[in-house]
């Protein structure tokens, strides 16, 4: 799973080393943080110190939330991710993802919905409203590259992330977690989508939710499906190294266009908590 390296000799090696950083920066100006390792993406925190700020429930379009963001801007702006909780749940149910993802070089907003009973389509609209707020009027808007945005969510929030990705094809990534939605076909979706389901989910069984969702998304959109062994519907509600590891890798690869993270996605990972993994490797 590691990329090979070329061995250079003599003066050519010196020359290559001298120009490599500049060439790499020119190729992808969105790389943030040091070269990744298994340890670095499994760690509870990444290389960026994180601050947070509260968003009032009086904000327009969604029910408020919490923004987690890298404290330093020395490396430039960051991509941003909006995350929705599930049916009857609040942002506290998925709050662990905020600092975990932000410390890897993203601005993250975990949202409360207008009503805890909001359905997936409404949650999708609210995710998009949260991204608009982040990039347009939030106190951290200057830290964000508005062209590099993503959505995620749990249960109906996961179904909402599919809705948001379908409605806003300019998004760079979507990560539905144990997604629930009455709509089963997403054939018009083009955003790179990583679906994570639980083998023992009885609320949104993978056979009637995650798997048909994944199968309906065109391969040209870039997609992956990871099923966690023996996991219930509520696996996204507690800190989970496997979930974080591959969410980070997906966001880095598609929001930051950071091919350093391809090694963790292609070939398909086979960590012990993973029951099944499907993908469209190699990623374009």
Textual characterization of the structure:
With 284 residues, the chain is α/β, with parallel strands linked by helices. The chain is built from eight helices and nine strands. The protein has helices at residues 10-27, 38-42, 97-102, 120-136, 156-167, 210-216, 241-254, 262-265, and strands spanning 50-55, 65-70, 78-84, 106-111, 144-154, 173-177, 193-198, 223-228, 274-279. A nine-stranded mixed sheet has the order 1-2-4-3-5-6-7-8-9, sandwiched between helices. Helix 4 packs across helix 5 (156-167).
Radius of gyration: 18 Å
Strand order of the largest sheet: 1-2-4-3-5-6-7-8-9
Helix content: 25-40%
Distance separating the two termini: 17 Å
List low-confidence stretches. 1-26
Approximate shape:
globular
Number of helices: 8
Q: Count of DSSP E strands? A: 9
Strand percent estimate = 15-25%
Give a short account of the largest sheet: 9 strands, mixed
Q: What structural class is derived from the secondary structure elements?
A: alpha/beta
